[in-house]
Design brief:
The chain is of the alpha/beta class. It has one domain (about 10-240): NAD(P)-binding Rossmann-like Domain (Rossmann fold, 3-Layer(aba) Sandwich), CATH 3.40.50. The protein has 9 helices and 7 strands. It has a 7-stranded parallel sheet, sandwiched between helices. Helix 5 links the parallel strand 4 (about 85-90) and strand 5. Helix 5 (about 105-130) runs parallel beside helix 6 (about 150-170). The longest helix has 28 residues, at about 105-130. The radius of gyration is 18 Å and the shape is globular. It starts with 7 loop residues before the first strand and ends in a 15-residue tail after the last strand. The mean pLDDT is about 95. Bound molecules: NADPH dihydro-nicotinamide-adenine-dinucleotide phosphate (NDP) and 2-hydroxyethylsulfonic acid. The site of 2-hydroxyethylsulfonic acid (8X3) has 6 residues, from loops. Belongs to the short-chain dehydrogenases/reductases (SDR) family. Keywords: Oxidoreductase, Plasmid. One of its GO terms (molecular function) is oxidoreductase activity, acting on the CH-OH group of donors, NAD or NADP as acceptor. This is NAD(P)-dependent oxidoreductase.
Length: about 250
């Protein structure tokens, strides 16, 4: 029911990886979830696994599509409308090639999803989040902070997510709305299959022997951020597996 104590969070991209784990973790903490993604079968399975439609409300839409996003949010039943936590998780990387070899359509898809889609749903939910003195958790990346070969537009979109988070925080502090940028490194999910067009060998090579972060590690971070008292804002959290660290600068010589 819509009460002052209702704990309702929306998790975008809850059909896989981090979003799926975040939804599961928040439900375990007593939250009810609006779960989004494009794969209806995955959303249906999540609803079933987490206690049914009273606990999880699925919204199947493409976050790149403003009209679909507006319609999905407008369709929320009263008992899921009072959202106080927005987890902006839906996103993707496409391709690992050097910029000069990249496909422009893939670049646009990353920008449309990671930047435009994220900004759109954030703006559409902002009044509700302000009304609830809520919390926005954005999934940025180590790629927000550290360039790497082949990261080009993906890293650019994630740098946007981090800086947008900090800017939102500046604007919303007087409203009591908290904003956190979560910046994971190497983490095992469908991310690399999506990035490589389903290349299982690339997936195995990247994660093999690396003991990467797991989606549950990110879900635990979100749980922590969400559970803090309302006067505490975690601005940014950068998280890597222990196996991942930095390399020297490379120098190209003629
Ligand atoms: P997954 O590929 O496992 O999950 C991505 C999720 O995003 C899916 O639920 C997918 O749902 C959703 N999504 C993608 N495009 C759209 C779209 N157009 N409309 C709606 N939903 C969409 O990847 P991760 O869980 O690893 O990634 C989650 C977030 O974390 C991303 O923003 C990613 O950039 C970021 N990240 C990932 C890291 C990693 O190494 N794995 C590290 C740092 C950050 P569906 O396909 O059903 O639409
Ligand atoms: C995903 C992490 O290192 O592949 O954002 O860019 S990385």
């Amino acid at each position: 029911p819509k009460t002052a104590t209702a704990k309702i969070a929306i998790v975008t991209g809850a059909t896989s990886g981090f979003g799926d784990a975040i939804a599961r973790r928040l439900v375990a903490e007593g939250w009810r979830i609006v779960a989004t993604g494009r794969r209806q079968d995955r959303l249906d399975a999540l609803v079933e696994a987490l206690g049914g439609p009273a606990v999880v409300h699925p919204l199947c839409f493409d976050i790149r599509d403003e009209k679909a996003t507006r319609e999905a949010l407008a369709s929320l039943p009263d008992d899921f409308a009072d959202i106080s936590v927005l987890v902006n998780n839906a996103g993707l990387a496409l391709g690992t090639k050097a910029a000069q070899d990249c496909d422009l359509d893939q670049w646009r898809t990353m920008i449309d999803t990671n930047v435009t889609g994220l900004v759109t749903i954030t703006r559409l939910l902002l009044d509700r989040l302000i009304a609830r003195r809520g919390l926005i958790v954005n999934l940025a990346s180590v790629a927000s902070n550290w360039p790497y070969p082949g990261g080009n537009v993906y890293g650019g979109t994630k740098a946007f997510v981090r800086q947008f988070s900090l800017g939102l925080r500046s604007d919303l502090s007087a409203q009591g709305v908290r904003v956190t940028s979560i910046e994971p490194g190497l983490a095992e999910s469908e991310f690399t299959l999506v990035r490589t067009g389903g290349d299982k060998a690339a997936y195995d090579a990247l994660y093999g022997g690396a003991n990467p972060l797991q989606p549950e590690d990110i879900a635990e971070t979100v749980r922590w951020v969400v559970s803090l008292p309302p006067h505490v804002n975690i601005n940014a959290v950068e998280i890597m597996p222990v196996s991942q660290s930095w390399a020297p600068f490379k120098i190209h010589r003629e």
